Amino acid sequence: MDEDRIAGSAQQAKGSAEAAAGRVLGDAKLQAEGAADHAAGTVRNAAGGAKDAAREAGESAQTEIRHLREELDEVSAEPVAPRLAAASARVDAYARQAEAAVARRSDALADLVWDHPLAAISGAAIAGYFLGRLTKGATYIYRR
Q: Which of 19, 100, 101, 104 could link 34 by a cystine bridge, Cβ 3.0 to 4.6 Å?
């Protein structure tokens, strides 16, 4: 509790007592001073309450920030999502399998060419001829 709240409450009580005494005694000046003290005590008490509220809000904000930082540390320490980690592992496994399959096929093709060089050269020549015929435009020149 803030000191202004305590002092404000005391000033309010003093002002209320002075105002009551002024009413009982019929002293308008004492009654006005009591009302003024009561009002000043109310303002001082409200100021102390505002300070208390600001302090509590600051403390709760600091506590909330600290709590959020702890949660962020916990979340960043874990994998983003278990399913995402599993999917990443699957993709890596498929990539390794695909690389192995390509390596096996290229090895098989190299073995075929090594074992049958004449057939490989003939096949490449025939494939080149047909590829050239397919990609060549229809530009025949007719002579008469």
A: 19
